[in-house]
Amino acid sequence: MRNVLSIILGGGRGKRLYPLTKLRAKPAVPLAGKYRLIDIPISNCINSEMHRIYILTQFNSTSLNRHVGLAYNFSPFQEGFVEILTAQQTPEGSYWFRGTADAVRRHLPTFKNARADEFLILSGDHLYRMDYRPFVEYHQQTGADITLSVLPVEPAKASDFGLIKVDDNGNVVEFREKPTGASLDAMRVDTSKMGLLPREAQQAPFIASMGIYVFKRQVLLDLLTGNLEQHDFGKELIPSAVGQYRIKAFLFKGYWEDIGTIRSFFNANIELVNYPDPDFSFYDAEAPIYTRQRYLPPSNMAGVHVTDSLISDGCIIENAIISHSVIGIRSIIGNNTTIENSLVMGADYFQLSQEGRNDAVKGVPPIGIGSDTHIRHAIIDKNARIGHNVRIINKDGVQEGTREDEGIWIKDGIVIVTKNSVVPHNTVI
């Protein structure tokens, strides 16, 4: 795998994950209390012995740069690196990335100079564990020009994906991006031909692209330089390549989730607490998920009742009730507070005692969650200051709404308190 170059697409403004992307790039959004989204594809690459990794991004990249720089430092005696490439002005253009393929095209001088026989293209907002080596080996053994990693999907989710059809030899003969109606029905196939059991094939009669591709070096270069008006892999470049190049499909049967929306992101985090059999587990010694080492102390919990939850490092929790929730690093949770079915992202730093006393004099809650507070079905972003006797329970059952000046959003019924926001004492949401 030494001649495989990995390229992770970091995305643009992350509109579907807004307001979590208001102050950070999408790949830098916290995950599972202590990780970031970008840790997933980087860890998969490292575990697959692919140590040369580029990340393409263009929006709010400061926190992503800091995280990657602190988390992934390879030995100077290794060839490995993780490097971020951002949108930049060049003689060819000064515009933002116009799509996934355009992002790679804009950095072709870098990739042309790299020692690579294949380019592995990945997305930065998916939750899954995958050894890429069998995927790349299949691509090499079949002599494919392009290989797509695919998975079977059920009808209810099919229109959210790029769907493919394959012939009896596993060659892709059709690719449609997010079809609906009659166009969707036309993409229905017998997935048992790809190795699914009859019952599984009946439940999942569509083949969806995961947004993970392997290209032969020259094929990618030719496609990007010869189709300058095609800016996106899934919408334009790959559909136009069908029939012109040999495109194969590689079936992935493990857990995979696109967490690019607030609902999918929230659900993926909350489902992590389903011990001992979560859909995705971070407890895999053979294929760990790496992240930044923070050297935090153990969490201190006094009189706390915790059920079905994840508690991260460096927390201080007093006489609270926590159920079916994920509690992030450095979370401070006050006396007699209840948190249920929620994601609390924690804090970037411990607040100094004197700073907290000064804030208290001003009537500003300290970083963390105050006493006698109830939080349900919510996302509390980092460094939020939530006062005493607060109710964040969506009491009116609102599905969509915003009080942006207060840092409060509701998306798909989930209350979101944005990063650095202040929720005063006795507030009811």
Brief sketch in words of this structure:
The protein is built from 12 helices and 31 strands. The termini are far apart.
The assembly state of the depicted protein chains is single chain
The low-confidence parts are none
Number of helices: 12
Radius of gyration, rounded?
A: 23 Å
**CATH fold assignment of the largest domain:** Spore Coat Polysaccharide Biosynthesis Protein SpsA, Chain A
Write a structural description.
This protein has 429 residues and is α/β, with parallel strands linked by helices. The chain has 2 domains: 4-273, Alpha-Beta Complex (Spore Coat Polysaccharide Biosynthesis Protein SpsA, Chain A), CATH 3.90.550.10; 300-423, Hexapeptide repeat proteins (UDP N-Acetylglucosamine Acyltransferase, domain 1), CATH 2.160.10. The protein is 22% helix and 28% strand. It contains 12 helices and 31 strands. Strands 1, 4, 5, 6, 8, 9, 10, 11 and 12 form a 9-stranded mixed beta sheet that branches. A 7-stranded mixed beta sheet has the order 16-19-22-25-30-29-28. A 5-stranded parallel beta sheet has the order 15-18-21-24-27, with no helix packed on it. The termini are far apart.
